[in-house]
Amino acid sequence: MDQLILFVKQLINGIQVGSIYALVALGYTMVYGIVKLINFAHGDFIMVGAYVTLATVPFLITCGLPAWACILVAVVICALLGVTTERVAYKPLRNSPRISALITAIGVSLFLQNAFALAFSPEPQAIQTIFRLNAVNIGEIQVAGVTLLTIVLSVVIMLLLQLFVKKTKMGKAMRAVSEDSAAAQLMGINVNTTISVTFAIGSALAAVAAVMYCAIYPQVDPYMGSLLGLKAFIAAVLGGIGVIPGAMLGGFVIGIAESMTKAYISSQLADAVVFGILIIVLLVKPTGILGKNVGEKV
Amino acid sequence: MLKVNDLKVCYGAIQAIKGISLEVNEGEIVSLIGANGAGKTTILHTITGLKKAESGSVTLFDHNLLATQPHKIVSLGMAHVPEGRHIFAQLTVEENLEMGSYIRKDKAEIEADKQQVFQRFPRLKERRKQLAGTLSGGEQQMLAIGRALMSNPKILLLDEPSMGLSPLLVKEIFEIIKEVNQSGMTVLLVEQNAKMALSVASRAYVLETGKVVMQGNAQEMLQNDQVRKAYLGA
Fold first, then answer.
1. CA atoms of A9 and A56, how far apart (whole Å)
2. I need a labelling partner for B177 at 20 to 30 A (CA). Which of A11, B26, B94, B189 fits?
């Protein structure tokens, strides 16, 4: 029985971390879907979101506002950051070889890390408590309030995103642009606006992930985005890059695998297992779990 | 309504269009015919802004199209059915049609136009929930035309609608082009199938390596010895 409870607890932990990975992976996959670019700066958008949280929580508390409102501030700032990055750094390279944009993305990532290290010192800084929630008992298992909130919030966001992409006019336009931007233009779809909206949504999801991440690990440093971003990127590739449900699935798989490895094998091996899964999936199914085989169009 | 004047277009150092002038009047079907590489598709791409012009002018109802952003052109009343169809394979047939009416806000009329497209292409109605990529080549061409009609254009640009289709389907597509024209829509048609293109058109231009080498009444061209030898295999 104790074994089972431990297992379920680890599973819940895994889903919690996994839902954060999934939120970040969605940003990678949506941007890739529309501009065929791996935005390596995406992980650093999380870091920016975390610093925004660091700065706004004390301010909100002094103003007598709830600390969780920092999510809204982080979402707005990260969305603006994403849109600006695309306009300034990626848009001029849209018709250049893809490798140029990729290198630029790495450049943006390094720029953000070092700019924040310069501005806020490279030392980790502690974040105040964001959510004050009571633990919930489910049967014999006690689940932290933040854990439950992270999972529920992520699932709701993912469902909303899926509805947005499937049902709304803008969502359909996004899919049209991602498939054939020239034809989309002929329909009167403004490709630039559509790409901006995609970056805004992707970066906003990174902001939500940042706040939820800070709620579990309450500290920020300028380099925190790189490993987190890398794992989310793996999640996106694992699920099939460019496929939205794939990013969600990939996120949960990576999160659960990591948590199980930490519990049953060794916590030092967790990253190795995550990367190992990536290698195996790429060997067996290079397009990812839900990725479609890309055949040449006739 | 559509006027192209002394248009020049380059791909790098190569001049693909070497000063072409043409005109499409209201209610006409005008065909551009010519061999591979004559520049037919390039002209259409330049008209709808997918390709930048070097010099010259393109006007639609006196709007300067060369200075118009590509996504704004459809709202001026011109729809372009590109070569190779370019339907959205991962969207359903119905969603493709919805993208065709992207710029419109008149819901009731959009619905009426959709029903009209379904009436014109009953196969599309049967397959409305299917992903467009699963359609056959002929059905995809119908979808591409239907999608363009959904913007309720005044002028329709068609690029090689016969490409890759069986003779029977080609005939069907051309019947539809004629019908659409009779309902009042102006058509600019680019075709390699010169015989079909000339038989439906009122006027035609013959293109050779980026220049207009002949123009005039389409029926007369069908009888013209030079055209017959070069393009009709007679």
1. 32
2. B94
Residue A93 lies in a domain: yes
The total of structural domains in chain A comes to 1
The answer to whether A192 and A91 are in contact (CB under 8 A) is: yes
Q: How far is CA B131 from CA A244, B13, B25, B97, B135, in A?
A: 17, 41, 37, 12, 8
Q: What pTM was computed for the model? A: 0.90
Sequence-distant (≥ 6) Cβ neighbours of residue A154 within 8 angstroms: A19, A20, A22, A23, A208, A212
Q: Please indicate, yes or no, if residue A288 is contained in any of the structural domains.
A: no
**Cβ contact, residue pair A186, B80, below 8 Å:** yes
Interface membership of B82 toward A (CB under 8 Å): yes
Q: How high is the ipTM of this complex? A: 0.90
The 10s digit of each residue's pLDDT in B96-152 is 999 999 999 999 999 999 999 999 999 999 999 999 999 998 899 999 999 999 999
Instruction: List the one residue out of A267, A71, A87 whose CA is nearest residue A157.
Output: A71
C-alpha to C-alpha distance for A89 and B2, rounded to whole angstroms = 38
Q: How many residues does chain A have?
A: 298
Instruction: Give the Å distances, CA to CA, from B22 to B62, B66, B69, B154, B228.
Output: 15, 15, 22, 18, 22
List, as ranges, residues 187-206 from B with C-beta within 8 Å of A: none
All structural domains of chain B with their residue ranges: 2-202
pLDDT tens column, A208-226: 999 999 999 999 999 999 9
Q: Residue B187 and residue B79: Cα distance in Å, rounded?
A: 10
* Contact: A189, B99; criterion CB under 8 Å: yes
**Residue A10 placed within a domain:** no
Question: Among residues 20-49 of chain B, which lie with CB inside 8 Å of chain A?
Answer: 48-49
**Residues of A in Cβ contact (< 8 Å) with B91:** 172, 175-176, 179
Q: What is the pLDDT of residues B52-72, one digit of tens each?
A: 999 999 999 989 999 999 999
Tokens representing B138 are: 């002929």
Residue with tokens 């990367």: A275
The residue with tokens 């695998």 is A257
Cβ distance of A186 and B102 shorter than 8 Å: no
Phi-psi region of B182 (alpha: psi -120 to 50; beta: other; left: phi over 0): alpha
Mean pLDDT computed over every residue of chain B:
92
Q: Which chain B residues are closer than 8 Å to A191 by Cβ?
A: 71
**Residue B74: which of A172, A186, A191 has the nearest Cβ?**
A186
The CA distance from A180 to A182, in Å, is 6
Q: Report pLDDT for B164.
A: 85
Closest approach of chain B CAs to the CA of A240, in angstroms?
15
* Secondary-structure percent of chain B, ordered helix, strand, coil, rounded to 5: 40, 30, 30
- Kindly report the CATH number that applies to the domain delimited by B2-202: 3.40.50.300
Contact A185 B89 (CB under 8 A): no
Domain limits at A66?
Answer: 19-233
> Which residues does chain A have within 8 Å of residue B87's beta carbon, measured at their own beta carbons?
183
